[in-house]
Each structure stands twice: as C-alpha cells, then as structure tokens.
Specification:
This protein has 181 residues and is α+β, with helices and mostly antiparallel strands. The chain contains 3 helices and 6 strands; from the N terminus they run αββββαββα. A hairpin with a 2-residue loop joins β2 and β3 (84-93).
Length: 181
C-alpha cells in the first residue's frame, strides 16, 4: 500500500537539481586542469608576433638489409616556414612506392599534429649524435625535431621499439607513423 503524502517524483526532482551542479563542478575542474599545458605548448609553436615558428619533424625508417619481399621504408616530414605548412609521407614496400603524399596543411591540422607531438614530449628528449660504430646491414632509423631554437634528434633500431625503457620514444614513433592529415 502506497502512502499518498509521498510524491513518487521527489527522488527524480532531487536528482535533476543535483546533477547540473555535479556536472558543472566536474566540467570546471577538468577544464582548469588541462588548459595550462595546451596553452604553454601552443606558445611554443608561434612567435610573439603570432607567426608560426620555423619547424621540421622528420622520421626516416627502413627495414635494413633483408630479402626484397620484406624490404620497406618510411619517410614522414612535417614542416613550417614562411611559405607555408606542409606534410610529406612516402612509404615503400618491396621497392614499390605505396604512399607518396605531399600536402599543404591548414593551420588547424598543423597545430593539431604539432600539439600531439609536443604533448608526448618529443621536444624534451635529449639530443643524440649519430652512432659512430654501425653494424653493416642493420637499419639505423632516426627522428629529428626542430621548432624555432628547440632541437632534438634520436636514433633507434627496430628492436628498440620492444624495450620498456624505450616506451616514450616508441609512442612518439608509432604516433608519427599513424599520422594522416
């Protein structure tokens, strides 16, 4: 038997009143936490006058000395200069060109790509010199990054991508390989 004095919609009314307040507090907390990092990385991309800084992100990876059926190479380049914003990608497999893109980027797509790489900490990786002692037939791959005065470069072997201590670099490499503007 139901008591008539108890309104069946009372719990729903309490929820409707509380939910916007909880949502507003949560949303405000989330936006205040992430905004400073994005704005600081965005400041890295432009000069004080608001122009894009000269930039170059370059990945070069090859399979090394393997049978022709398994041979591949990847070249990815993102650049900014006074003439514009550009994306270049060339993939080969078995000595045949699979992908060959040379595109002008919009400011939004360039900004999105570069912020993604900055958020991964590419600009904070220490500069490495090219290895002097190379093993014949082994693929020495590299990533170069330059943004204004910031500059870094590192080299890697394909086997490095599986090592735990190489995790940050592996994430950067895999992110660059997946980029499609």
């Amino acid at each position: 038997m139901r008591i008539l004095s108890q309104n069946p919609f009372l719990p729903l009314a309490k929820f409707v009143i509380k939910f916007p307040l909880v949502f507003l507090l949560t949303f405000t907390h989330c936006t205040t936490q992430s905004a400073p990092e994005v704005s600081s990385n965005l400041k890295l991309l432009k000069t004080e006058s608001g122009e894009w800084k000269k930039a170059l992100v370059y990945l070069e990876e090859t399979s090394g000395s393997v049978a022709p059926n398994y041979r591949y190479s990847k070249t990815i380049k993102i650049s900014a200069d006074k003439k514009g914003l550009y994306f270049f990608r060339k993939d080969t497999k078995s000595d045949a060109v699979i992908t060959n893109l040379n595109l002008s980027l919009t400011e939004d797509s360039y900004q999105k790509l570069m912020l993604q790489l900055l958020d991964l900490g590419l600009h904070n990786i220490p500069f490495e010199k090219e290895p002097k002692n190379k093993i014949t037939g082994v693929s020495y791959n590299k990533i170069s990054f330059q943004l204004g005065d910031l500059k870094t470069e590192f080299y890697y072997l394909l086997e490095n991508l599986k090592q735990k201590e190489f995790k940050q670099k592996t994430v950067i490499i895999e992110t660059l390989k997946r980029i499609t503007p």
